[in-house]
Amino acid sequence: MIQLKNTVLFQIVMALVVSLFLSCESNFKQVQMINYSEFVPASDADSIEVKYTDSGRISGVMKSPKMLDYANVAFPFTDFPKGIDVTLYDKKGKRTFIVANYAISYKKTGIIDLQGKVKITSETGQQLETEQLFFDQKNEWFYTERKFKLTDKAKGVSFGQGIDFSKDFKIVNSQRISGELEAEE
């Protein structure tokens, strides 16, 4: 009789334990969402054209089919997922044209990362092609460690890996170059 009572008591306790486990609702997803912050842009624009000015004169014009501005994150940046088309003007009005399939501009550092079939052409006929190029806006300086092709109507075509140059192509420092170039003496 005592054993029968123990068996019945055991079955009742097990039924309660099983019903407790089955009745508990899983809130694991809610717990995960506590520290979740959605990564969405602060602003989103289509077909933009931005004109940059310096002391009343236009220093650049940028066009892009899509812009996503992430000004609301710890390290703010602007993303151009469908590419950009930029025209830079020097103080004498000479232009430099930049085209890239993708770009991202970091606000705190002033660095623009251009990617995917990047092509820069000066008004004097110099052209640089590469897959990734960085532009330091403060110093108006381009640089990359990627392979590049530099075409100069006066000096020929060169290939290499690693280059940095001023936005007007007046100063060019290239590494590991090959090709036919005419050197000034």
Automatic annotation (TrEMBL):
This is LPS export ABC transporter periplasmic protein LptC. NCBIfam families: LptC_YrbK (TIGR04409). InterPro entries: LipoPS_assembly_LptC-rel (IPR010664), LptC (IPR026265). It comes from the Bacteria. It comes from Flavobacterium agrisoli. One of its GO terms (cellular component) is plasma membrane. One of its GO terms (molecular function) is lipopolysaccharide transmembrane transporter activity.
